[in-house]
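Justification of computing resources. Each target in the renewal requires a structure prediction run like the one illustrated here; the chain below, 118 residues long, is used simply to show the kind of job we budget for.
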Amino acid sequence: QVQLVESGGGLVQAGESLRLSCAASGRTFTMYRMGWFRQAPGKEREFVAAISWSGGSTYYANSVKGRFTISRDNAENTVQLQMNPLKREDTAVYYCAAGAASVGWDYWGQGTQVTVSS
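Resulting structure tokens:
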């Protein structure tokens, strides 16, 4: 079992930045690739970014490429999502996820709200 707890969400204006963090506990953190997803009101959950167990490979949705940066600290068992600059369409609940295999996600956090106003 892996427990994931997100933090860092909030209300910001368009053009500003936020840094989300996800703290993992339970099984060995480096066994998992980590990802961020988001779900806006009335929409399905969508992929935002992912990072390999070593941190050597990162992946981004086209909508956030060049604006968001995913990173991880294996010593601290945390994964971060730096978001800058934010747009109104980034408003959503952001979820942290952990996956043991090369595909699929096994564990999810409870989510943190990000609201971007114009």
